[in-house]
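Subject: sequence -> structure tokens, single chain

Hey, anyone have a minute? Need the predicted structure for the following. Not urgent.
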Amino acid sequence: MFTSMGLAVNDPNHGFCRDCLTLQRTVSRRCERCGSPRLVQHEELYRLHLAHIDCDAFYASIEKRDNPALKDRPVIIGGGKRGVVSTACYIARIHGVRSAMPMFKALEVCPEAVVIKPDMEKYVRVGREMRAMMQALTPLVEPLSIDEAFLDLAGTERLHGLPSALVLARFVQTIEKELGISASVGLSYCKFLAKVASDLRKPRGFSVIGEAEAISFLAEQPVTMIWGVGKAFAASLERDGIRMISQLQKMERADLMHRYGVIGDRLYRLARAEDDRQVDPRRDTKSVSAETTFDIDIASLDDLAPVLRALSEKVSTRLKKTDIAGRTVVLKLKSRDFKIRTRNRQLGDPTQLADRIFSVGLDILKREIDGTRYRLLGIGVSDLSDAANADPPDLVDVRARKRALAEGAIDALRDRFGGKAVETGYTFGKGHRGRPTRPEEDEGPELQHPWERI
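Reply:
Had a minute. Here:
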């Protein structure tokens, strides 16, 4: 099989060792060379080339890398007792800590945990380093978030002198040595199953789902394994008596679409392991946003407005750095009982300006001031496009041009002297109230679905 690449012929059922990458001559439970039990063996091992790579507890892993004293301790990345968990290391997860769990609950189940506020700048830097390493393997890299991506390695065997499975195993070794983080790999023939496979044996997993076994494998799984089936939809399916994918496999497409609309077609196809989507490295960012959770619930517009201004400036900065603009402003609020309100307004032209984002967001926010106390506030823009057509001169509002020029001058001063060099009237003298207290937000184009972080 590998003769053209200068390698000895290897039976895929013998596989290779993930630790020393030695090809195995026989079926065994341990590596013939180093004795490691971490072997990859599968009859389709050397025919598959579509992978999903997902880092293991990415933020927590970076913090442990940078502070070895945390190695054996439970670590939670989040902010304050009022915040939520961004991520938790696997030690904390054993105690029951989960992403998006309110911080007070996380500390109840794991009181000995070390809580660290997110350092998004550092995480993004590491994520970009890893992505550059992925792109050295193949140009077909489709990021899903800061720490995960699809890769299609079809046709790269001659370039690397190795089949895709071995290239991926070598890659995760490399990021462990050079970046100090670990990742899990899912290898299959389609995106759906590659992503499913990467979740099977975390952390440091390497799982393979072949075409021959796909339908039988899925038949044994709950419907929640299918993309788009969250808690609410799963409850709806259960009310109809559908809990397992095997039940969907026995149903007709027309019946599923009659019951559930367009998503019924997705249920039909994915239950049968049919997924023809290609890895698209040009996949567009859907939105750019920033949000924060307060230490105390806030109901007053006077208290919310300074935070909204600071968040608008964060969004504006990211838009300008990536040379994109958004046409729809989206406001997000979470009340003290964890109910989420999302409101949006479309603009006549795309914008990058903090002043414009804030002005529209403030107008929307005023309509939501009804005595409700809010624990979270977020602002973002969607309907993204190139910045070339952003913020054209306004012939009606003659002061808009002056405000845009003033914002440009403020940006220049902040670039030179730091983000706190200039403050607006909304944030000046407000202390932490004028700035996010828990920066659990997306980093612009690094995240495709920032609102889903909560």
